[in-house]
Fold:
Amino acid sequence: MPWAVGIDEAGYGPNLGPLVQAAVALHLPDDDPAGWDTLRGVVRRCHEPDDGRLLIDDSKKVYTRGGFEALERGVWAAFAAARHTVHEFLWGESPVPDWGADLWAESWFDADQVLPVEVPAAELAEGFGRFREAAGGCGWDVRLVPAPWFNRVCDECGSKGAVLARGLVELAAGAFAALPADGRPVVSLCDKQGGRNFYAAMVQQAFPDGWVVAEKEGAAESRYRVDRLDRPVSVVFRPRADGDSVAVALASMVCKYLREVCMRQFNRFWQQHVPDLKPTAGYPGDAKRFYDAIRPAMAKLGLTEDQVWRKR
Structure:
């Protein structure tokens, strides 16, 4: 039974708020690395009727169908039943990483916010147990990139694509290192990064002790085998990968959920400083309206453009 690792992101396009990236690892049978058949008894997709199973799918579809509550039910039931604050959700008992220090320094960030936000925790406990049992083991990791960190990487590398690539490398490497030393194969599935088709250098960075072999590189799929490790490893990039895999769909939902939690904090903070300010999702167009409205308050608070506005 291989480990299926799904990696996805949310918030790459906005000018305001953080970029969120996540990796989810599930223990799945050899004949069902996608996981949809194995988990059919506890998981349903957006096109299926609401019959009490967890709604797990591409986060955009889940959010459109059931809003924030549907995201929270799926994410919380799958992973977070014992984590009761934003800090615990992000890091558990682990030390705060470098990117976390930047996030912690954000004026709007509230690490002590109690979770879940909308759904009573007691309603989620049963779903958590059923999913974990059906999945046969799972784990997850996240990266939240606030504006200051995002802008520094853009300045260093000249491209915001480098922000996405750096997070993907860290998540792929971290997910691999966190897996049990059981020798089981690992299949990592990632969404395509824009129009890119060539990922060998990125995969090599994630697995520096391995030897990366490109098996296929094209618009429909880019597939790599990593030899010379203690277990078979393959890394696959596909467009719309969140429809191909429960692990990627869950990673997508974790990202969207955390992005929404952060944007609620972001809007709440600025509404305290600017009367009658309408909230924003942070995307181009509306982000400019919001940013122009908060600039006087930024000046009073001593905040620079690079601390709030993502430049690319």
Remarks:
- The chain has a mean pLDDT of 91.
- The CA atoms of residues 116 and 221 lie 37 Å apart.
- DSSP finds nine helices and nine strands in the chain.
